[in-house]
Amino acid sequence: MTEVVLREAKPADRDAILEVTLAAYQQYAAVMPPVHWQLYRQDIVATLADVTPALQIVAEQNGAVVGAALLYPGDMEASTPNGAPVTLASPELRLLAVAPAARGHGIGAAIVADCIARARASGAAELTLHTTDMMSVALRMYERMGFVHAPELDFHPAPGVTVKGYRLSLVAMGSSAAATEADASRPLMILIAGPYRSGTNDDPELIAANVEAMNEMALRVFRAGHLPVLGEWFALPLIETAGSRRIGDETFNEIFHPVARRLVAHCDACLRIGGASKGADEMVALARDHGKMVFTRFEDIPR
Fold first, then answer.
1. Does the model's pTM come out above 0.70?
2. Cystine design at 193: which of 216, 238, 267, 280 (Cβ 3.0–4.6 Å)?
3. Averaged over 263-274, what is the pLDDT?
4. Which residue has the higher pLDDT, 24 or 175?
């Protein structure tokens, strides 16, 4: 997958953001009563027409907007989709959207992680959002990233309709300046993700060259003060012990990628290096799905 860039929206992005957001939410038209969907759609359009005082974040890929979200500051008056006034005591994430064609690559999680980092940097104690059970994929992602249901934030825009409030505590993540500084200086466990078999036609010398490139990057990461890991360091000895006879046989496939997938959850970040690789791209997507940091350049790693 081509690299996705997260940035603050520009005025020129307005039409693209509206198009992506409406496309992302269109699926709910089939499960909502028509009158409710029309009101909801009108609210989306009205909200995006003037996002003040929210910060608007976009995900850009190949020069096109493929995702967006709004991050509202805390301590402000707002309104629910049915016009009822509500006070936002904490920063609030709203209208997270990913273009249907761009889904499945961790873009939504990357946008949420960016909003978490911004809310945390502002000194907020928590980040909130609202969602519904029909948004099941997004709901599972929020829960994986640490958001918990806060029933006191629920509201009912129509009879029989519950919009659920969720909150993520930022205090445990180190919201104070001192904790943020300490966390920034903490060594990170960084998964090095690069090609292993890709482009080699399973030539042992070319595969060895790919591993050596990842090992060399791992050494640079170590000398930068962090703890590098490669899925190959764990998988290859297990594959040999399990009796694999060749790359790509049943025993190899049983272990190689599953080890890396499990390893992602235990890392703080993923560094993508090298050329084309479906396996490495999967590790990046998983890292973003878990809310981990993703780097595409060694120079971006904190020191």
1. no
2. 280
3. 92
4. 24
- pLDDT confidence of residue 84: 61
Q: State whether CATH 3.40.630.30 applies to domain 4-169.
A: yes
Distance CA 32, CA 78 (A): 24
State both tokens at 158. 């129509």
Comparing CA positions, the residue from 24, 40, 187 lying closest to residue 96 is 24
What is the residue extent of each domain of the chain?
Answer: 4-169, 187-300
Spell out the CATH class of 187-300. alpha beta
* Tens of pLDDT, residues 92-121: 999 999 999 998 888 898 899 889 988 888
Q: Averaged over 13-37, what is the pLDDT?
A: 96
Greatest alpha-carbon span in the chain: 66
Q: Which distant-in-sequence residues (6+ apart) come within 8 Å of 229 by Cβ?
A: 189, 190, 191, 192, 218, 263, 267
Identify the burial level of 272 via C-beta atoms within 10 angstroms of its C-beta, where 0-12 means exposed, 13-18 middle and 19 or more buried.
buried
| DSSP string over the chain | -PPEEEEE--GGGHHHHHHHHHHHHGGGGGTS-HHHHHHHHHHHHHHHH--TTSEEEEEEETTEEEEEEEEE-SSEEEE-TTS-EEEE-S-EEEEEEE-GGGTTSSHHHHHHHHHHHHHHHTT-SEEEEEE-TT-HHHHHHHHHTT-EE-GGG-EEEETTEEEEEEEEESSTT--SHHHHHHHHHSPPEEEEE--SSTTTTT-HHHHHHHHHHHHHHHHHHHHTTSEEE-HHHHHHHHHHHTT--STTSHHHHHHHHHHHHHHHTT-SEEEE-SS--HHHHHHHHHHHHTT-EEESSGGGS--
